[in-house]
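Feature request disguised as a bug: please show the residue count (244) next to Peroxisomal membrane protein 11-3 in the output. Example input:
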Amino acid sequence: MAPQNPNPNPRDFLLHLESYLSKRDGVDKLLKISRYASKIILSSSVMSDSSTLSLRLKSFESSVGVSRKAFRLGKFVQDVNAFRSSNVSTKEELILSILAYGGEGIYYFVEQFVWLGKAGLIDKKNLSVLQKISAWCEFIGYIGSVSLKVKELRQVGEDEECLKSTIEVSTIRGIGYDEEMEKLRKLRLKKMMKRLSVVQDFADGLMALADIRDGKGVLSAPLLLSSAGLLSALISTHKNWISC
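Example output, currently without the count:
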């Protein structure tokens, strides 16, 4: 039997890009990157607020913000399905799952009406209330999400230590451990992605908190929030890229 090629040909970039852009989240995160990159420029005093480029960036950022909300149509369904398929073994995990998936699901559901209001299809008189409800649900969702991911990271850490012990024993006994090494590699990759996901949730949670507080407080500085938004977008783009 011919040996397997340990370095298979990398995936064609354009085909990968096509697959990425065919997904709702792929396009949404590219829009998010462009929006928060614009907000960073606007909030860093690089240019005058009255300059032509500054006014164009403000208009662009605002338009992209409204456009992104359209990508949330029906997105709450994924949280319903995620909750249905979640492996809950304790009451604590059940509560955290309800917070995570319920909070995010309601957030996406309410955001549909926020978009319709901003698009002018429904009356805007209740828009501020809807946005406040949306922000609270999003923030609660991140609390649950971060808590679940921290628990998962602990479990991954325990599994990693177990595998490392198995490899050490195999080394002493002089037996093969290729399968364990591959499992360890995948486990470490999973741990890295989970950590990035926690950082992303913290960044998004910070922006949700700023929305709840109507942009008041030290943690609501425009440059800080814009940087958090860009960081979140880059992490999400990376996760979506390697998963598609």
